[in-house]
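fyi for ur records
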Amino acid sequence: MAKNTRERILDAALMIFARDGYVGTNIKDIAESVGIVKSALYRHFESKEEIWKAVQEMMISYYAEHFGSVDRLPAIPGDTGELYEMTMRMVNFTVNDEKVVMMRRILLTEQFRDETVRKLASDYFIHDTEAIFTRVFSEMMKSGAIRKDDPEMLAFSYTTPVTALIHLCDREPEKKEEALLKVQQFVRHFIAEYGI
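which gave:
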């Protein structure tokens, strides 16, 4: 299905914001990338700031749909094998999906200039993933799939090293394979410690 002009504008803006940053991007660049003139772009968005906000909303929705969110939890694993599969699926999506990689680049650079992006980065990199896994671990404890512990602290200790390795993939793409292997080893270690 062909994308409408608004979707094409948002996709182009995501790519250009990731490459040039918010400040370094202008409306003309976005319009040219889509193959339209500025006046046509203004029929869809009133300003660069409106495009910027729409890109953020698009990516929040996209991430929730493909990764999960507190309001849209992934299926709770029935056992530690399913936990391993779910975690690796989430990690592979996070490091390999082009849109997600671009958005992460934007969050990392723009968090120092924009208060809204700073909050979004904190939610994305820390709070939301912890909250998802707090719920996952809580439910897995109830079902007896993992041993009982503080689910919030368990989620923190589970997501922090994985997040650090994802950031390593961004900083040093040549180490992606090594980082993903380390994630696999870490998840297996966690399962050996907490699985029943």
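Residues 15 and 102 are 7 Å apart (CA to CA). thats all i got for now
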